[in-house]
Amino acid sequence: MQPFAAMSVQTKSERPCWWRMAVAPGTVRVATVTALVVGPILTAINQWGALTGGADLNWIKVALTFAVPYAVSTVSAALNACRDAAGS
Fold first, then answer.
1. Within a domain: residue 21?
2. N or C terminus: which one in the chain shows less Cβ crowding within 10 Å?
3. Burial group, residue 29, by CB count within 10 angstroms (0-12, 13-18, 19+)
């Protein structure tokens, strides 16, 4: 079985726009909430030494720690919306 086989049956003009799904207000809202809940937890785990004063805080890692849950939530929601729209 090919991945996304149901989506490949449709013509290009019939497929939903992935980008439109990814930037839809509902998707952005859920992804933002996910990042704001998961981000601090992962930051505490990954930057514990810096938070307790034993090391320097790496702001790039902190930003990525929030960006990754946002991206995962967005991609997941957009793919599910496209799959639902394809009727699978």
1. yes
2. N
3. exposed
